[in-house]
Structure formats: structure tokens, C-alpha cells
Amino acid sequence: MKLVIVESPAKAKTINNYLGKDYEVLASFGHVRDLPAKDGSVLPDDDFAMTWEVDTASKKRLSDIGNALKNADELILATDPDREGEAISWHVLDVLRQKKLIKDKPVSRVVFNAITKAAITEAMLHPRAIDEPLVDAYLARRALDYLVGFTLSPVLWRKLPGSRSAGRVQSVALRIISDREREIEKFKAQEYWSIGARLSEKGKSFEARLYSVDGKKTDKLDVGTAADAEVLRAAIAAGTFSVTAVDRKPTKRNPYAPFTTSSLQQDASSRLGFSPSRTMQVAQRLYEDGIITYMRTDGVQMAPEAIDQARRAIVKEFGSDYVPEKARIYQTKAKNAQEAHEAIRPTDMFKHPDALRGDPDRHRLYELIWKRTLASQMRSAEIERTTADISVFATSRDIALRAVGSVVTFPGFLALYGVQAKEDRTDDAEDDEDSRELPPLNVGDRPKLEEALIEQHFTQPPPRYSEASLIKKMEELGIGRPSTYAATMSVLQDRNYVRLEKRQLIPEDRGRIVTAFLESFFNRYVEYGFTASLEEQLDLISDGKLAYKDVLRDFWKDFQHQVEEIKDLRVSEVLDALNEMLADHIFPAKADGSDPRRCPNCGEGQLSLKLGKFGAFIGCSNYPECRYTMQLSDAATGGAGDAGAGDGIIGTDPESGLEVALKSGRFGPYVQLGDGAEPKRSSLPKGWAQDSLTLEKALQLLSLPREVGNHPETGKPISAGIGRYGPFVLHDGTYANLPDVEEVFTVGLNRAVDLIAQKAAGGGRGNRAAPAAIQTFEHADGPITVRAGRYGPYVNQGKVNATLPKELKPEDVTVEKALELIAAKGGSSGGKKSSSRTAGAKKAPAKKAAVKKTTTKPAAKAAKPKAAAKSKAENPA
User: Fold this and answer.
1) What is the CATH number for 438?
2) Structure pTM?
3) Strands of 800-803's sheet in order across
4) Would you say residue 669 lies in a domain?
5) Which residues, 6+ apart, have CB-to-CB distance to 562 below 8 Å?
6) Are residues 145 and 196 in the same domain?
7) Are strands 784-789 and 773-778 parallel, antiparallel or unpaired?
8) Torsions phi, psi for 270 (to 5 deg)
9) Is residue 538 pLDDT above 60, yes or no?
10) Are residues 412 and 392 in the same domain?
11) Domain that holds residue 817
């Protein structure tokens, strides 16, 4: 018998069906070891020795793998075909060797790009050893992320209270977002006017824009005032028109290459509104079900048999005219050939997306992948682009107009999308006029004027990054890896450094301050070029051209020296640097030209950034004589301050006449009604931005909890509110969670009663699932389970929980010991109270024959996508 190790239980089940009775397939459930989240897990002074820790759940899985290996003749490691997958195989093998379970049994590594019978059978015919350079690259990346996180984060905690962490990639991504915000703040809008004419020829209207004036070609910003624009408009309105030149050029639009991880995340964000993490979760399910190939890849090439199948599928869907004479071959841009796997594509090109309509997310994402793959092998779209130059006569000025339009003469791959040429583009670089259709114009035609057109415009600042455009930017700069982008953006939002609002990434003040601090004192480590060069070194390691410990030594030598210098830095020096770097943000210029830093309260002190226990705020230099303070968000928008650090008046409650204030407290921002001895307060729910909080929303929060109505059966009241675990409805001591914060203000009686009923049917406290069972003993009086609880492992029977002694491991618990612990806790083997330990112990032997030991896979963690198991936050805090 051969033992095969994969990552996911879903994969294990599918692959087991393909391989047959001579194989046993077990899942590792992602990584089985990780660096403990404490100082000293990586020791630079001990040649970067790394200490690995196996968590409780993984111990059980490794134990199962070890037991299975004892009866196996061979071990086959078949984890995912990337750097993380190679590392998981290495971890599993290393643990098994430490337990001396390998002995003389052969060990091999196989990889497959798709979970299909053909792909798996082929992979089994080509085993290899573990790729040590790939593992070295993983070790280097993990060590670097750990060293940066556990070295830099404590510096932030000391120098910038309220800041949670910094990271090798996360901090650079944050800088990209912050730099764009700085560009937007510094942007000065410029007025300009567009001039043109709506003309008609052969019964069809079309538009032409101003092209030149007095022989000089006009640029976008040349007409800058309404007066200049009106002069040109009047000249056009008084003139006659003649077509002086017509240029028709056939052009082609080529399809895009098949998806990589990065391009899939970008397209799914732009077209479907999926976040990168949601995209990867759905793609993971498609992969594990054998519908698409592996979804973490830098490669754009496809296997020859896949190309052939795609061409045949195109013929079936559209006919032979849509297939090019030769297959299209795409080249990957990935520098490391070892990781340049196949592109993301369907495993069966004939599987139409309509087959997945029962699952909306999978259907939409698969349709995106299916269309992109087939389109990549279709003929180019053929387009005729027409440019017509039109002279304006009988005016005092020499004016020329230009009309541009295009016609699709053969749709090619665009037929797959069923849209016009421009609709398939993932960018907006092409002007709208290229998608317009012109009437058949010829030299000498004299079109008629319908209307002279004039419109005012203002230049726009660069747009904020969306998740898709940030991924594109990071990929262009060579920062991070596509497989980690989703995790990076999640970390930034979880740390409250960035918020996602209307699909835009907006840096919070906390994020701006962290970026300013790092740019001031750790500039090298947030430079785009330095971070990209480190990624190149990691690629060289995985290619076997560079020793990973050499990279760690070079990095650590300079990084440690920089940290030591900053440790002795005075807080005043930090504040001076932040005040200077963030001046445009926290002290914007005033319209009247007065000093933006002059204190509005005392008129003498200078406003400056201050650091409090719970974060940064603006305060007066004349403290304590002047106690004026305000929030950073108020400073950036010119808002008025109030008496406490982080305070700001939102408005006045129309019913009570009391002021409603936004404040910063120990546990985050909150709103307060009036002052008094015990004023009404309410914390801001997660996702509510301080700078967008209105008086109406604040009063809604302060109105909680609200009465929903009386329960129709019990007659007792049901209320709705927001608690420690989020929004809820409450009836007679029973809480039921609401899925959305907004619903707490609108939930009606019927909905509340339904939620309470569902909760009552589910039982237990909250909607939280019980911890995963490590062992289960079937017993006549009810099952006994051993579980990993929040406060340590314990045994459970019925309503009785008994904590395990420290010296007893969960996997070593026997049924006798479990019954003894339950009896000692105050229960019996049957779940009833016992008068003494002896009574409970005496009953145990009589039940022994009714006990059967089983193992249960952890429900909560087993349901987690493998992507989540692999996506470790790169920082400790």
C-alpha cells in the first residue's frame, strides 16, 4: 500500500477515488508547522536557526499520517505545485523523520496541475525528490517576514502608540496607497474647455472635435477660459464644412493571454466585484472539484493537449472561421521557470459555464476563466478605423475638426463576449471616440452643422487604488507574489491602516502615520526598488543560484543596525519628522492665507501632532495652559476641535438639546451624548469610518438598544443592539446574531422571531461552533469527546466539561481517564451528577464494553479553504 499526502481533505477524497485500493490518501490540512508567534523563533546569532511549532490539531493529523505510514510500503508527497506546497511536503517529511517513521521506505514527490484522473495518473509516473532550492526560498521568505515583523513592530509600539505592526511587503503596499493619497491632496485642478461640432452627412449624425487652430494642433488643455472657448464656438457656428481627408486603416485587436493568479484577481475585481480573497476561495473550490487547473501560477502557457481541446471547443461554439491557422503560444513573464506553471484554465474546455448555474459564485468565476481561455485561442478581431479631417470655411480663423470612428468587420474573439470591441478591455485607455461609427465619408463631402459643441472640464486627480489596480501596481513593481496579494490587503484592512470604501482603498490616519514614520527612519525598507530586489533574490534562491542564508545575513546586518539606531530616538524627534512629512495632510493651507498651524483656541500656540496612549491626535504647543485638541480627520478637513484628545463635536441632538461628540477611547472610537456623570455612549461598529460619521448615524447608535416588539408566543419584548460580538436581537436571555450592522436599525418583528427560533433550534451559546473534536468515544450514555478549547484541552459528555491535566496530552486520553475526569467534575458516565469520585469511577468498568473509539476530523477547520491555511499573516501583531 502507498500512502499519499495532499493538503486538502476535498482533494484527498477525489484523488483517492482516482487512485484505487492500492493507495491511501490523507490530508495535512495545509501547513502542519509554523514559527511560534513569539520572540526567538528565528535566531540570527545561531545562523538563523528556526524553531517550528506543531499546533494541537496538526499533531492529531500527523499522528494519523504516522500510523498510516507504519502499514505503508511507500510515501508519496503530492501537495500543491508551488513554493508553499513544496514547503508543506518538506515539513511533513521532516516531522516523520524526527519520529523515525520513514526508516528505509522510499519517499517521492509528485505534482499535478489539475485534479483529473489523467493528470494524477501522469504525475504518478514521474516522481522526483523534494526541490530543496524551492524549500530554501520558502525558508528565506518566512524568516525575512518574521524578522521584519518581530523586530520592527515593537519599535512601532514604543514610538507610535496605537500602531499595530509593520511588515516587509505589507508596509510597502501601504506606502503605495499613501503615496497616491498624497498625490491627490497636492493635486490642483486646471480648467479646460472642449470644442467640437455635431454634424450630419447622408442622414446620419456624428461628432467631430477641434483638431487645430490657425495651423497649430490643439492639445487638451489649450483652451483654458470660457471667453476663448466662446470665440471658437462662434467661429464654428458661423462656418461651413468640407471633408478634406479620409483615412481608413484596418487594425486588429488580439485576445489576452489566459489568466494568471494576478490577472484573475484583477479581472474578478473589475468585472464581478470580488475581493482578491473571495476570488481565491472560489477558485480553490473549482480547483478541488477538478473543474480548473491550479489557481496559484505566474505562467500564461497551456499544455499542447489543452490548446488542442480549446481549438476544438471554439469550432463547436463558433465554427472553424474563428480558429486561427496556427495555435497561439503565450510566453510567461515569470523570471523563475521552476514556478512558471500552466495558466489557470478549465480542465475540460467543453464544460460550459451553464453547468454551474446552481452555484452563483462558482458559475460567475468559472465563466470568466472559460471565456478568457477560449478567447486566448481565437482569431483576432478585425476593425476598420476611420479618421476624417474636416475644414471650417468662411470664418476669421483657420479651424480644422477631426472625426474618428471604428467598425468591427470581423468580431473574432469578441464574439465570445457578445459585446462591442471596447467592452472586453480591462483598462479605459482607449478613447470613447474609437468605438463610434461614422457615416461613409468621402473627400469633398460637405456635412451640415447641427450644433456647435462647447463643454467645461477640470483636470482630475489620479484615482485611488482599487484592490485590482493595487495588485497590478505591485506586480509591475515586482513587490510580493500574486499568491500573497489577497492576504496582504486583508492584513492592511484588519490593522485599520486602510479602509475599502466604494471599491477604493483609502489610507486611514493611522496608516499615513506608520508610512511617514517608516519613510523617515526606515526608508530603505519601504523603497520599491529594494523590496523588488529582495524578491529577485528569493527567485534566485528557488532557482538554486543563491544560498538563502547569505541573503538573510546581508539583510539582517543592515536592518539590525538601523533598528538599534532608532531605539534611542526621542519621541520629539519622531514628532518633528511626522509633522514635516504629513504637513499637507494634517495642516492643509487655509483659504485666507493664515497660518494653518496657529491654534484657533489661544491664538498663540502652534498645532502639532501628539502621541497619546491610544494613538495620534492634534494638540496645542501651549499645553497645559491651552488644552485644545482635535482628531486627525478633523485637522485634514478643517474641522473644529474640542477639549479631549481625539474629541470632535458632530452636532446637537434635536430632542435633548445635548451635543453629540465623537471620541477616541481605550477600545476605539465612540459617540457620546452630552457630558454629565454617566453620559450615553456607543462604540462605532466595525466598518464605520470616523470621518464619514454623520449626526443621523450617531443618533441611531445612541438610540440602541431599540425595541423591536413583543414575541407573539411569550409576550416578552425583543430588542436589537450591538454587542461585543456584533449586532444581535435579544429575547428572554437568548441572543441571535444579525448578519449586518445596518439591519440592527431596521429589523422587524417577523425577522427577529425567525432568528430567535433558529437560534433556539441550534442550541448552545451564540452561533459559534463547538471546538473541533480530537477524539470521540461512543458511549451508551452519550458520546465522550476530547476537544481543544479556548483555554486548553478538555473532555466533554453532555453538558459536563472537564479540563485535562497539564501533563496529559489530548491524544493520550483513554475512555477510562475521560470517565474519571467527568465524574470528578460532578457528572457521571451517563451525564448525571454523582455524589463522589468513587461512585463515578465504580460505574466506569461496567460501561467499558459499550465504548468505541473513533477519530473525527475538525469541522470548523476542515471547512476552511486551503488558501486560508497557507496564507499566514506576515506580521505577529
Assistant:
1) 2.70.20.10
2) 0.67
3) 800-803, 792-797, 784-789, 773-778, 852-854
4) no
5) 521, 522, 524, 525
6) no
7) antiparallel
8) -70, -40
9) yes
10) yes
11) 773-856
Q: What is the DSSP secondary structure assignment for residue 772, as one 8-state letter?
A: P
Give the DSSP H or E segment for 207. Answer: strand 204-213
Domain-ending residue, one of 350, 375, 400? 375
Claim to verify: residue 712 and residue 749 sit in the same structural domain = yes
Instruction: Tell me if 389 sits within 8 A of 245, measured CB to CB.
Output: yes
Task: Please report the pLDDT score of residue 420 as a whole number.
Answer: 46
Query: Where is 310: in which H helix or E strand?
Result: helix 304-318
Kindly state the DSSP code that residue 606 receives in the 8-state scheme: B
pLDDT tens column, 182-213: 999 888 889 999 999 999 999 999 999 999 99
Q: Angle formed by the axes of helices 132-159 and 528-542, to 10°?
A: 150
Residue with C-alpha cell 501628539?
Answer: 610
Number of domains in the chain: 6
The phi and psi torsions of 675 (rounded to 5 degrees) equal -115, -95
Q: Say whether both 295 and 227 belong to one domain.
A: no
Higher pLDDT, 192 or 653: 192
Cα(815)–Cα(854) distance, rounded to whole angstroms? 11
Could you tell me if residue 811 is inside a domain? yes
Nearest CA-CA partner of 165 in 506, 510, 474: 510
Last residue of a domain, one of 82, 105, 130: 130
Q: Please give the helix or strand (H or E) that residue 472 lies within, else none.
A: helix 467-477
Q: Does residue 673 lie in a domain region?
A: no
- Catalytic residue, from 146, 192, 294, 670: name it: 294
pLDDT at 772 over 80: no
Element (H, E) at 756: helix 749-762
Tell me: cis bond preceding 705? Omega within 30 of 0 counts.
Answer: yes
Within a domain: 674: no
Mean pLDDT of the chain: 82
Both 54 and 108 in a single domain? yes
Is residue 294 part of the annotated active site? The answer reads: yes
149, 209: one domain: no
Q: Are 532 and 474 in contact (CB under 8 A)?
A: no
